Amino acid sequence: MKVDAKKLVVLVTGATSGFGEAICRRFAKEGAKVIATGRRLDRLAALKKDLRASCHTAVLDVTDRAATEALVKNLPAEFSKVSVVVANAGLALGLSPAHEADLADWDAMVAANINGLLYTVRAFLPGMVARDEGHVVLMGSTACDFPYPGGNVYGASKAFVKQFALNLRADLLGSNIRVTDIEPGLAETEFSLVRFKGDAAKAKAPYAGLDPLTADDIAETVYWTCTLPRHVNVNRLQLMPVMQAFAPFAFKRK
Ligand code: NDP
Ligand code: 8X3
User: Fold this and answer.
1) What is the pLDDT at residue 139?
2) Distance from the CA of 252 to the center of ligand 1, in angstroms?
3) What is d(CA 166, CA 175) in angstroms, rounded to the nearest whole number?
4) Which of 55, 95, 150, 223 has the greatest CB tally within 10 Å of its CB?
5) Which residues are catalytic?
6) Domains within the chain, CATH numbers bracketed
7) Would you state the pLDDT for residue 99?
8) From the CA of 253, how far away is ligand 1's center (Å)?
């Protein structure tokens, strides 16, 4: 039997844009309660206006461990039994080769994509284990498997996410808690605008002349994995636009 979305309480990090916002809207449409978090209050307020009573919002920087722990304790009663955690907040900064990259960019990616994701999961997991019910969805990337020039720390952070998801499965065997790593390829959101620090022309270029994935594609995928019958666990799910594939090995010839 499929999971009834109306019974779910879904916590989403990075819900102010792109995948996170689309995931909130997708679950709310089916009657789930959603907790939308992110750093930008105005975006959260706009989402709350649309989703109304089915949505609780909280400003959260996932790199703030204490704030993440406090969030769990301060949820209104009707949102407190979180059944799905979507650790989606994350970013890429820059595309410079490793020897030229800005260390501050590397720190920021590690802080959000690794530490922030860990704080989120660790904060909500004990409640799920106590209730013996839950689904942890981690937002990975094709960059976890496929290196590309300038992807250095971003790709490594997503490889961490993949392995953490698989190791969580090992720890949670015997419980009813599911863990899924969603690994999208090229998707048009604010991701590139962030990577290229507000340079709109540079941000548009990766999507030119092709049909990239959309935030709604990812939301649909997350929704599907979370509503499959409870005995089914999607470990990893990798998706790309049809117009994207793999590069051959690179050679620097003499
Ligand atoms: P967006 O830039 O559109 O959204 C990123 C979200 O993350 C925003 O809501 C932002 O919110 C939030 N965020 C960033 N840093 C923090 C932080 N420190 N604390 C809390 N929230 C934070 O990009 P996407 O929707 O595309 O990205 C979502 C996830 O998907 C990321 O983990 C990304 O790595 C991954 N991904 C993206 C792909 C793509 O091609 N777009 C492909 C594969 C994976 P705010 O700034 O308000 O805090
Ligand atoms: C985002 C996809 O290819 O820009 O994770 O790394 S890519």
Assistant:
1) 99
2) 34
3) 15
4) 55
5) 154
6) 5-239 (3.40.50.720)
7) 98
8) 38
